[in-house]
Write a structure and sequence with these properties.
203 residues; Rossmann fold; 5-stranded parallel beta sheet; two-stranded antiparallel sheet; 7 strands; 22% strand
Length: 203
C-alpha cells in the first residue's frame, strides 16, 4: 500500500488537493482518503468546562499514536476501525468507519509532517504552502458560512491559536516534504506532475 501524506496549514488547500488526487488515482487504483481530524482526542470534563482555553491547533490535541498504529495495520493488509469525531461534543462517537487496505492511501492533515513517528510510514510527503492572508481569507469564508461563526471569533482564534501553532509546528515541517505545492496556484498547474510522481511509485 502506497501512503501519501498531504500536510499544510488551515486553509492551505490540502483537503482539496487530497480530494483531486484521489479522484485522479481512483480510475486505475483502489484509493482511499484518511483525515487526521478523525484522531482528535476526546476532551476531559475539565477541558469541556474551559472550552475557550482548549487549543485544537496544537499537535497534542490529536492522537497520533493511534493513527500510527492504524497505519501499520493497514500497511500489513489488515482492516481498521477509524474513529469518528464529533465537533459539537468534542468527543469520539461510538460509531467508527471501517477501512480496508487499498492500493493508495492519501492522508491529509495539519501535523502529518510534524510527528517524527509518522514520517517513516509515508511513501510520499507533500506540503501545501500557502500565504497567511490567503489561508485566513479561506478560513473566514468557510467558518462564517459553514459553521455559523462570527468574523470576530474567526479572527480571534486565527490570531491566538491557529497562526501561532502554524509558525511553531506546521510551517517548520515543510522541510520533511519531498514535494511542495504552491496553494494559490490552479490545480492544473501542479496536479499533472503530482499524478505522474504518484504513478511512478505505483509502477
Amino acid at each position: 500500500m502506497l501512503v501519501i501524506a498531504i500536510a499544510g496549514g488551515s486553509g492551505s488547500g490540502k483537503t482539496s488537493v487530497a480530494s483531486r488526487l484521489a479522484d485522479a488515482i481512483s480510475s486505475d487504483h483502489q484509493c482511499d482518503v484518511l483525515c487526521e481530524d478523525s484522531y482528535y482526542k476526546t476532551l476531559t470534563p475539565e477541558q469541556h468546562a474551559n472550552i475557550s482555553e482548549v487549543n485544537f491547533d496544537h499537535p497534542d490535541a490529536l492522537d497520533h499514536e493511534q493513527l500510527r498504529l492504524d497505519l501499520l495495520q493497514l500497511k500489513d493488509g489488515n482492516n481498521v476501525a477509524i474513529p469518528t469525531y464529533c465537533y459539537k461534543t468534542h468527543s469520539r462517537l461510538t460509531e467508527t468507519r471501517a477501512m480496508q487496505a487499498c492500493d493508495v492511501l492519501i492522508l491529509e492533515g495539519l501535523h502529518l509532517l510534524h510527528r517524527a513517528s509518522l514520517l517513516p510510514l509515508y511513501d510520499m510527503a507533500v506540503f501545501v504552502d500557502t500565504p497567511t492572508d490567503v489561508r485566513l481569507a479561506r478560513r473566514l469564508a468557510r467558518d462564517v458560512s459553514e459553521r455559523q461563526r462570527s468574523p470576530e471569533s474567526v479572527h480571534y482564534q486565527f490570531n491566538t491559536t491557529v497562526e501561532p501553532c502554524h509558525q511553531a509546528f506546521i510551517q517548520p515541517s515543510k522541510k520533511n516534504a519531498c514535494v511542495t505545492i504552491n496553494g494559490t496556484l490552479p490545480f492544473n498547474d501542479f496536479m499533472p506532475d503530482l499524478i505522474t510522481q504518484v504513478s511512478g511509485k505505483l509502477s
